Amino acid sequence: MQHNPQTRCPALTAVEPIGVIHTPFTAVSGTPIQSAAAGEAEGVVEIFPRFVQGLADIEGLERLWLIYLFHRAAPAQLMVRPFLDNAEHGIFATRSPARPNHLGLSPVRLLRVEQNRLYVSQVDMIDGSPLLDIKPYVPEFDHFAVTRTGWYKGKSPKGVVADDRFALIDPPDSDR
Fold first, then answer.
1. Does 98 reside within a domain?
2. Residue 145 falls within a domain, yes or no?
3. pLDDT in tens, 38-62
4. Residue 160, domain member (yes or no)
5. For residues 81-103, b (16+ Cβ closer than 10 Å) or e, as one string?
6. Spatial CA neighbour of 73 closest among 99, 35, 37, 107
7. Domain harbouring 112, CATH code
8. Could you say which DSSP state residue 60 is in?
9. How many domains does the chain have?
10. Cβ-Cβ contacts under 8 Å for 108 (sequence gap 6 or more)
11. Tens-place pLDDT, residues 101-135
12. Which percentage of the chain shows pLDDT scores above 90?
């Protein structure tokens, strides 16, 4: 299939955050590497005013997918040594944050909604992460039984936290 720039989706060049994620994790090092290993770590998803209407009916959901930017991740790497292994793997066979588009995806538990704030648990992202989208977690759509897990076979994120291997050397200035 040949790429035709005339049919390119305009949104690909104009992604805009819809909010910001606040968590207790202010440094890459020590942050849980997956939502499933985050325990009950809580955070607040703050939705910007112009997007609040889109929260209608969200309180009836137990879990949400948060799509966000790894805003403190190192530049993209095609080969990485992930947190759960000592061997190098292709970036697309891992969940490492040094991705070409620095997109993060986490399934969190929705605790409550207060105006433009979603109180969530099982957070595994850095404080201040720009939120790009929210989607409902629906077990009938989002859960698949699998028989192949590649190099992940036998690995668990329980008790594993991030170190600085994928952190920006000079993180952007912050007002936090």
1. yes
2. yes
3. 889 999 999 999 999 999 999 999 9
4. no
5. ebbbeeeebebeebbbbbbeebe
6. 99
7. 2.40.30.70
8. G
9. 1
10. 35, 43, 63, 64, 66, 120, 121, 122, 123
11. 999 999 999 999 999 999 999 999 999 999 999 99
12. 59
